[in-house]
Design a protein that fits this description.
Order of helices and strands: HHHHHHEEEEHE
Shape: flat
InterPro entries: GINS_A (IPR021151), GINS_bundle-like_dom_sf (IPR036224), GINS_Sld5 (IPR008591), SLD5_C (IPR031633), Sld5_GINS_A (IPR038749)
CATH architecture of the largest domain: Up-down Bundle
Protein name: DNA replication complex GINS protein SLD5
Helix content: 40-55%
CATH topology of the largest domain: Methane Monooxygenase Hydroxylase, Chain G, domain 1
Strand content: 5-15%
Family: Belongs to the GINS4/SLD5 family.
Distance between the termini: 27 Å
Subcellular location: Chromosome; Nucleus
Number of domains: 2
Keywords: Chromosome, DNA replication, Nucleus
Length: 214
């Protein structure tokens, strides 16, 4: 990242940048909902890949280091592509809920969609509504020609359980009971420990980077 006027969070070494991408990828892969967009990380990773490829072109052919660096580039490209595909799958699967969440977010609250994803989501939503209308709804009785996609499409299951690794110690995390006769209780999450816990309990910690889904 550029330290002149840029966010301090983006002043990362190449290794730190790739770790940030991998963390975002794993969190997105294992979280049941669409997470906050990371366009700055994506942009920096693409720039880093371009820089690495430019260096390879200047290297001597046949050098073992060239093969190793080429494999590293392919690995990073795979993680980046997998991350973006995972987000697109969630956008398509939970489309009306994603757009509703984006619409209702408070001013200053981070967006869950990048500008490109938002444009894709709006176009996908419009095409879906047009398809439903032309293929099915116009042939239905007048009282059945309206359908709410928000009510028809299942929401992300925030009650599912996820595995996580604690990156920063957390105290007094409120855990909801599994059965009616049980009471709420709090737990401390020690740095480096691993847990299986309900996603919505630790969703804010995923967003803050205090825990890593695995």
């Amino acid at each position: 990242g550029d330290s002149d006027g840029g966010s301090e969070d983006l002043v990362l070494t190449p290794a730190q940048l790739i770790r940030s991408l991998e963390q975002a990828w794993l969190n997105e892969k294992f979280a049941p909902e669409l997470l906050e967009s990371k366009p700055e990380i994506i942009e920096c990773v693409v720039e880093q890949l371009d820089h690495m490829e430019a260096n390879l072109k200047r290297s001597k052919k046949g050098d073992l280091k060239v093969s190793i660096h080429h494999m590293e580039i392919e690995r990073i490209r795979y993680v980046l592509s997998s991350y973006l595909r995972c987000r697109l799958v969630k956008i398509e699967k939970f489309l009306p809920h994603v757009l509703e969440k984006e619409k209702s977010r408070a001013e200053g609250e981070p967006s869950i969609l990048s500008p490109e994803e938002f444009a894709f989501a709006k176009e996908y939503m419009a095409n879906t509504e047009t398809y439903l209308k032309n293929v099915a709804l116009k042939h239905m009785p007048p009282n059945l020609q309206k359908v709410s996609l928000l009510k028809s499409v299942p929401k992300p299951n925030l009650d599912c359980f996820v595995f996580l690794r604690v990156l920063e110690r957390q105290e007094n995390i409120l855990v909801e009971p599994e059965m009616d006769e049980e009471r709420e209780y709090t737990i401390d999450l020690e740095e480096g420990s691993q847990h299986l816990i309900r996603y919505k309990t630790i969703a804010p910690l995923v967003a803050s980077g205090a825990v890593q889904l695995i």
